[in-house]
Design a protein that fits this description.
10-stranded parallel β-sheet, 357 residues, 12 helices, alpha/beta
């Protein structure tokens, strides 16, 4: 299966598209932008700017959510970008995190999320979709309560061309229910369970079992993994570079009050301690107090850190387990030690990674 290398970019005006141009020159397969309206610029606008300023690289939310946009609105936006970019768009979607926290809400429940993704994919295929009041805010009346000569009986993207490539949808998942759903009902699953090979292997095994139970080929599943990466000869320095982003992704394993995501016994106690200390007002920041709650030993297993040789060996091991879509998350800074880490990643790791197809 073709190996893809994606990089997560800061979603800021003028910055995201500038970095997308640089990422295309560096050789990345694709770029991802966070969808978090209070912490980042508007996703669709920045995706459009990235696509407009590049010609080859793919563009995706990393990740969008199932709450802040009606599935028809999200599908319409992504399908439009797909048409304008000549087929370079994909979607990673999850239940919501910082985007909802800054509106005062917790992530969407698993079953409503599953309904959302199923509906989203139907819209993206140009299919007719039943009206679903569950996707609308309270206080909006059903259409049949007003007088019309003739009203639509179903919903669909009527402008969508039949020959346009469908937008791939990948479910960003940590827990077993989400992993199993994504493996069966989406184009791929993007694991957010850290970088420990034991956790990755358990998650992939669960995904393949779900596909087999559904009568699907388990080997055809596209498996992605969000991996926090820093390249530096000194392990402690590498850990510090990636600490802010790693803390954000680590929280997904304990955000609902109990440890999930196939955590190893070695990690369960540390994850349980970490869960209640996370400061959402310092989301993703390396200087956040909650980063101090992660030991170097934990970070060395759950992030991909070390010198370039070590990083390549770690990624190769995950490739052997079945990961083909590597979503490498770095510190957004391109200065100081973070800048040197990025340079080594691009020059010494990325070219080899892309040869593993």
């Amino acid at each position: 299966m073709t190996v893809e290398a994606w990089t997560l970019l800061p979603s800021l005006p003028k910055v995201a598209s500038r970095d997308a141009v640089a990422a295309e020159q560096e050789g990345w397969t694709g770029v991802m932008l966070a969808d978090s309206q209070n912490l980042a610029a508007e996703l669709v606008v920045e995706m459009a700017m990235c696509a407009a300023r590049t010609s080859r690289i793919r563009v995706s939310p990393g990740v969008t959510n199932s709450v802040t946009r009606h599935p028809a609105v999200l599908a319409g936006a992504m399908a439009t970008l797909q048409a304008e970019s000549s087929g370079r768009i994909s979607v990673d979607i999850g239940r919501g995190d910082s985007s909802l926290a800054h509106l005062g809400f917790a992530p969407m429940g698993v079953k409503p999320f599953q309904r959302y993704v199923t509906t989203l994919r139907a819209y993206l295929r140009g299919e007719e979709v039943d009206f679903d009041p569950g996707f609308m805010p309270s206080g909006v009346r059903p259409l049949h309560t007003i007088d019309l000569g003739k009203a639509p009986g179903m919903s669909r993207l009527g402008w969508l061309r039949g020959d346009q490539p469908a937008v791939p949808v990948n479910v960003a998942a940590t827990g077993p229910k989400m992993i199993a759903f994504g493996a069966v009902a989406a184009d791929g699953v993007s694991l957010s369970v850290g970088a420990d090979p034991a956790r990755i292997a358990a998650a992939i095994s669960a995904a393949r079992e779900a596909r087999e139970a559904a009568g699907l080929d388990p080997e055809s599943l596209v498996v992605g993994a969000y991996l926090n990466v820093a390249v530096h000869d000194d392990l402690a320095t590498a850990a510090q570079i990636t600490s802010g982003k790693l803390a954000s992704f680590t929280r997904f394993s304990v955000m609902h009050g109990s440890v999930t995501g196939f955590a190893t016994e070695a990690d369960r106690a540390e994850l349980a301690r970490f869960g209640g200390t996370y400061d959402m007002t310092a989301h993703g920041r390396a200087d956040a107090q909650h980063t101090q709650g992660l030991s170097l030993e934990f970070m060395s297993r759950n992030a991909v850190i070390g010198d370039s040789k070590t990083v390549l060996e770690r990624l190769w091991e995950l490739r052997g387990l079945g990961v083909s879509r590597f979503i490498l998350t770095e510190d957004f800074s391109r200065t100081g030690v973070a800048g040197e880490s990025h340079r080594q990643l691009v020059e010494e790791v990325l070219p080899e990674l892309l040869r593993w197809s």
